[in-house]
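Feature request disguised as a bug report, sorry. It would help if multi-protein outputs had a clear separator. Right now it looks like this:
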Amino acid sequence: MPRRTLRPDYSISRLILGGWQFSPGHHPDGYDLDEVLETLVEVADLGVTTFDCADIYEGVEELYGRFLARWKTTSAHRPIQIHTKFVPDLQALATLTKADVARVVDRSLRRLGVDRLDLVQFFWWDAQTPGFEQTGVWLDELRSAGKIRHLAVTNLSVERCRRLRDAGVELVSDQVQYSVLDRRPERTLVPYAQEEKMALLCYGGLAGGFLTDRWLGKPEPEGLRLNRSLVKYRLIIDELGGWEGHQRLLSTLRGIADEQGVDIAAVAVRFVLDQPGVAAVITGASAAHQVASTLRAFEVELTDADRARISEAVGGGYGPPGDVYDLEGDRTGRHGRIMKYGLQSGEAATAPRAR
């Protein structure tokens, strides 16, 4: 498994397993705990040693804590990296205190069963609400105190990254949406990240599954029950011309995949991995064989002609309008309206039940 060094003391696998698929929105009826833990062990055995979660993914930090405990009982000595997030509720931003920040970080430590968090990715819902820089400084103080190894952000624009930098907060990475459908990071974030030695950790490379063979030649998913993740990516598809255009893209990806002897997912992931500044792609999976299939992305070699074909299939340019997270950050727009802004205080359903 290829790895990428983010700092001299810290490296990650270039494929990261996301944890959102273990949250209630994807498992409303619960899951078999032993099966999931065994899947996580199998994924780590494949060389995917970096796992992503968040304080707002209900039950996932606890799940990863159990996984870490089980991993220690195996014969493997490969270190595991757990990336979590710090995402205070929208309504709590104006009154957030230093004690609140410490409490949430301590809670993540307890849930994961570790003495130090490997990477904490900070997000702030509203750029106009005061306290953003101060909260970043408080997190940095917890890093200095040994509770956090490295600080990062997620879904933040260049302007907000600069504000934290100017406050003295060093950022290791920015986790953003980046795919053949959505190349908004290239507008301003990619050059800035390279200049600041800030890695990009990219989610949405498979657009929730829409960039896989499963949807090639399939009718538009009207009337289907789509989870919030799929709704989010379906909105991105709509921004680029809708389902007919998406089928043209999938056909193009399938043609390239046939030439390489892989599936569409491997080509889609390889495209993102090849972009400047991208350290890793985050992908979800419920079984180890799905991860093994995605790992074939590391066998793919895209040519300039391949990349040109892909770009032409989506109409050229950067995809959706605006900068990183601009559409999603508009709470009155259709992208923003599907977001949940109060997950810390229980806006979502209860955590999935382990059977």
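(second protein starts here, but nothing in the output says so)
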Amino acid sequence: MSPAEEMTDSRRWAAFAAAATSLFLTLLDFSIVNVALPSIATDTGASTASLQWVISGYALAFGMVPIIAGRLGDDIGRRRMLLIGIAGFVVTSAASGLAPTPGVLIAARVLQGLAGGILNPQVSGLVQQLFGIAERGKAFGVIGAMVGTATAGGPVVGGVIIALGGTHLGWRLNFLINVPIGIASFVLCWRLLPRTRPAGRRRRLDLPGAGLLTLGIGSVLFPAVQYDAHHDARLALALIPAAAFLVALALWERGPARRRGHPLINTTLLRVSSYASGLGTALAYFTGYSGLPLVLTLFLQLGLHYSALHAGLTASAFAIGVTVSAPIGGSLVSRLGRRLLVGALTIFCVGVVGAIVVGSTVPGSVSSTTVGLILLGPLFVAGLGGGSVITPNQALSLQEVNPIEGSTAGGMLQTAQRIGAALGAALCSAVFYAVVSAAASGGRARAREFGHGFAAALGLTVVLSLVALGLSLRATRRVAQPGASADG
């Protein structure tokens, strides 16, 4: 019997809660900083370019390391890698909060992103290690609720902290709040997580593969996170090197790395139909989903002239929907299988279409406050659907994956999500600004024009969500009994 199997139920869930808390902090730091940018500029004199790097440096570093970190977690121990990630995140959060200059803040944020990217795939691997198939859905349900709450709730939390702390202290507290919570998470993980030795012989890290992977993912993420909507052709040109690096990686992993016996990416994972389908679903869904909070914020603040806090409170309708549905989806996934995922994607699309109707018809005919109130319903419905997409997809994708490969598989899912999120933000903002500029016809854009841009950008979200829905429907047809196999 393994150490994880010897743990009581209460200890396993307590260990998971401690690890999941650290994961939540890393997700919160994607969005909590957005509302702090004006305060950072006032307090440190940061330029617009520096402020952009405060945001994009974290996202870029975070997205580059999950596959490598996942492989290391499978090989040298998830507990060890998780503790390294948490410790690094605590230290770099403190450095960010105490940064005296924009340069120090940017460097700390990049290192903070690396630490977050290290610890995230370990949590997916630990779910595989700590829980049986029946309980994994519930655990992933908690993670799904965290993703939605952190994404949409970050600006609200950040706005409240800045309101309480003031211009000079508030933005620093947005980072420093991670320190005591992170320390508590570290101590609990140290005490509660089982000290297990990885199964099998320790494998050497595939350094050439790691280098090609880092260059490939970096070449995708860098232009996306630095994206300028007025130079959208540059994004396509910048992705050419990414394609070259990723093709070289595929050739290396299928050839020399396999012959040496220690490839970075176990390509047999892609032969597991449930995992391959889940990977494609994650990429398509996150590319569409991640544009929603961005263009919603742009529409509310630029078109309706909402404050950051007002916009965050309006967006919280989506987060509430996610928080409500994610645990429910986690409890139902083992019984309904991919049918749940199909239903959730359908509900998400219905909610987004409702927001499109509001954005394209209502602005200009009623007050700005009324527009936001009308949007609450569609956003809540979209959140209900979205909360039950992430959870079942993670659980079903990993259901047939050998637990020995749990962190690597989780790292690949994380990478697909990060790439999708970066590309989705770039593409949706491009559509938004293009439509607003065209509708304004050389004059000053009004609420109606911003509403049209909002609706057009969300149209892209619907298209990509339908791609994810198609992949899920295809996987559903391969399943004889929903939930009986990882294919469903």
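Even a blank line would do. Unrelated, but nice: Residues 480-488 have pLDDT under 50 and may be disordered.
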